[in-house]
Write a structure and sequence with these properties.
Shape: globular
Distance between the termini: 37 Å
Number of strands: 7
CATH class: Alpha Beta
Order of helices and strands: EHEHEHEHEHEHHEH
Number of domains: 1
Number of helices: 8
Structural class: alpha/beta
CATH architecture: Alpha-Beta Complex
Oligomer: single chain
């Protein structure tokens, strides 16, 4: 029987050829010195810039790397879902291809918490804008807008649902991701609502986040995330679930 790693790192990627090499090398360099087994899974979301080919070529340098390719662009949610379902780790972390939140945050902030909780879900939360490095105006606006919409209409007790750094136990991932329906940017909202529906209480950690010069914000995504957030709330409420209880937000 193939040995199951302690940690699976899932990286959704769409047209990330300019940034992925550095990200994979940084992650592998850090995890090589970690006291646990790991795997890295890149999920190419139908890229047109050779992202998948680049990732496969890096397999000669990056240990324990698997590359999955979706046949066409489906959205970040679909890519993360595919990675989570392919992962074998006891804990499964997804992070963005720009490595905005460094992998060392897992060891420094997340690992001490998952040792305390049997079925943990740990969510990254961006620090205040003034502490973020290299933030673009578009990125800062998109971040503030998504936080406003989600806290106003769906999750008033969450600091930041959209940070691309979330860790799940094996059981939590198997409960949540097969049921995920949103494929786009707002999938994080559905993930957290499904977690609450299954009785999980995600804990947030505040993490440093850096933007990069190649970061791009699709203006239409700002509108879609509002619609998708409300759509998920209506779906769960029709199913008889109430969203009035507070979550455990211990840090």
């Amino acid at each position: 029987m193939e040995k199951e790693p302690f940690l699976s790192v899932i990286i959704p990627a769409y047209n990330e050829a300019k940034r992925l090499s550095r990200t994979l090398i940084e992650i592998d360099a850090h995890l090589t010195g970690a006291p646990y087994d790991y795997e890295i899974i890149v999920v190419d979301d139908g890229s047109a810039d050779g992202t998948a080919d680049l990732a496969r070529a890096l397999g000669k340098l990056v240990k324990e790397l698997t590359v999955l390719s979706l046949p066409a662009r489906q959205g970040k949610g679909a890519a993360v879902k595919a990675g989570m379902r392919a992962a074998k780790g006891k804990y499964r972390l997804y992070l963005d291809a720009d490595h905005a939140v460094h992998i060392r945050v897992f060891d420094e902030e997340v690992l001490p918490l998952i040792k305390e909780e049997k079925e943990a879900i740990i969510c990254g939360a961006w620090q205040k804008a003034s502490t973020r490095h290299g933030s673009t105006r578009a990125g800062a606006f998109a971040h503030k807008w998504s936080r406003f919409v989600i806290r106003a209409f769906v999750m008033p007790d969450r600091h930041d649902t959209q940070c691309g750094f979330k860790c799940f136990s094996r059981q939590a991932a198997e409960d949540i991701f097969p049921r995920l329906t949103l494929e786009g940017w707002a999938f994080d909202v559905e993930v957290l609502l499904l977690a609450k529906r299954f009785g999980y209480a995600p804990r947030e950690v505040f993490v440093p986040c850096r933007d990069h010069p190649f970061s791009y914000v699709d203006p239409s995504a700002l509108f879609r995330i509002a619609l998708d957030a409300l759509r998920v709330r209506r779906f769960l409420e029709k199913d008889g679930y109430k969203l009035d209880k507070k979550w455990d937000t211990r840090l």
